[in-house]
Amino acid sequence: MKMKAMVLHRVGHPLVLEEVPVPEPSEEEILVRIKTCGVCRTDLHIVDGDLPSPKLPLIPGHEIIGTVEKVGSMVKGFRVGDRVGVPWLAYTCGECKYCRRGKENLCENALFTGYTKDGGYAHYTVAHYRYAFHIPDEYDDLHAAPLMCAGLIGYRSYRFVKDEAQTIGIYGFGAAAHIITQIAVAQGKRVFAFTRPGDTAKQKFALSLGAEWAGGSDEEPPVKLDAAIIYAPVGPLMVKALRDVDRGGRVVSAGIHMSDIPSFPYRLLWEERSMHSVANLTRQDGEEFFETIKEVMVRTKVNPYPLEEANRALDDLRNGRFEGAAVLVMED
C-alpha cells in the first residue's frame, strides 16, 4: 500500500512529492492516519541544514494530528479510531543517566519525529504509543496541530518562569508566542511582546491576544521584566532581553537552534540574572499542557496549505508572511 509524502533527500533542497510505502507499526507502535501536520520552525532548520545529521531520506513534520488505524500487540491506552497527536519527542531509552533522573528530554538515545525518524508530511506515520497524546475534543484537527510543538515546547519554556514571574517579555511573535500569550494572560501575567522592528501587524496581533504592550525588538518595554522568553532564533535577542529583565530575572531560549549570541558586559548578567535553554520536551510537559488548555481555551491562528505545497509553507514561514502557524492538510 502506497501513500503520498513530501520527502527531503538533500538539506538545502526543496522537498519532493513522492509515493512511498505506508509504514507498518511494530508491537509498541500505532499507525496513524494523518489529518493535519503543523509546519514548525524546527522543520525549517532541518531542511535548511541548521540541524546536523537528519535521517535521509526524511519525511519531516512533528506537529501531527490524526486517527489510529492500527495498533501493535503491546500497545496500551489507544484503540483504533482514537484521535491522537504525535510530537517532536518520539522515543527515549529509559535507561541512560538522564532518563533515570527524570530528564528524558536529554536522553542520550532519544529519537525525534521528523528528524531522526519519519514524520507527518505524509498521509500516514507510525508512533510509539508512549509518545503520543489524546487530543481534547474542543480542538479540531486544523487548530490542534500547532499545539503539538508550538504549544508543547512553548509551554515547557513558560514553565521555567510561570511560578515566579509576573511581567514576562516574549520575543518573536510566531506560533509558540501566540499560544503562550493566551495562557499567560489567562493566568494573570502581564505580557510584553517584541516583534521585528516595524512589524505593526504582529504587534496588533499580540495586543489582540491580551499582551499589555507590543513593540519592536529595538524598543525598551515600559517596565522592567521579571522574565523573558526568546522564540525567535536570533542570538542578539538574548543580550537585549538581559537588558530588559530586572534583578534576578531569567532569560529563556526556547529554540532548538539560534544564531550566535554576541559578547556582552558582565554587568548585564550580574545581580543574579540568568540565561537558560530549553531542550525538547518531556511527557510530563505534555500531560500538564493538555490539562492546562482544557481550562484555558486557546485559539490558534492557522494558515492551511495542501500537503503538496509544503515547500511554499516553509518558504512563507522563512519569510514571515503569515501570523500564527502554517498547517498542512491531508486530502482524504
Keywords:
single chain; 6-stranded parallel sheet; 7-stranded mixed sheet; alpha/beta; Quinone Oxidoreductase, Chain A, domain 1; Rossmann fold
3D architecture notes:
This protein folds into 2 domains: 176 residues, Medium-chain alcohol dehydrogenases, catalytic domain (Quinone Oxidoreductase, Chain A, domain 1); 126 residues, 3-Layer(aba) Sandwich (Rossmann fold), CATH 3.40.50.720. The mean pLDDT is 96. Strands 3, 4, 5, 8, 9, 16 and 17 form a 7-stranded mixed β-sheet that branches. The chain is globular and about 60 Å long. α4 packs across α5. It is built from 10 helices and 17 strands. With 332 residues, it is an alpha/beta fold. The longest helix is centred in the last third of the chain and has 13 residues.
Structure at a glance:
The protein is α/β, with parallel strands linked by helices and 332 residues long.
| CATH topology-level name of the largest domain | Quinone Oxidoreductase, Chain A, domain 1
CATH architecture of the largest domain: Alpha-Beta Complex
Count the DSSP helices: 10
Number of strands: 17
**From the structure provided, what is the oligomeric state, counting identical versus distinct chains?**
single chain
Structural class: alpha/beta
| Mean pLDDT across every amino acid position | 96
* Uncertain spans: none
What percent of residues are in strands? 25-35%
* Percentage of residues in helical conformation: 10-25%
CATH class wording of the largest domain: Alpha Beta
Overall 3D shape = globular
Distance between the termini: 15 Å
CATH superfamily of the largest domain: Medium-chain alcohol dehydrogenases, catalytic domain
Name the helix and strand elements from N-terminus to C-terminus, one letter apiece: EEEHEEEHEEEHHEHEHEEHEHEHEHE
- Count of the separate structural domains: 2
Largest sheet: 7 strands, mixed
Rg over CA atoms: 19 Å
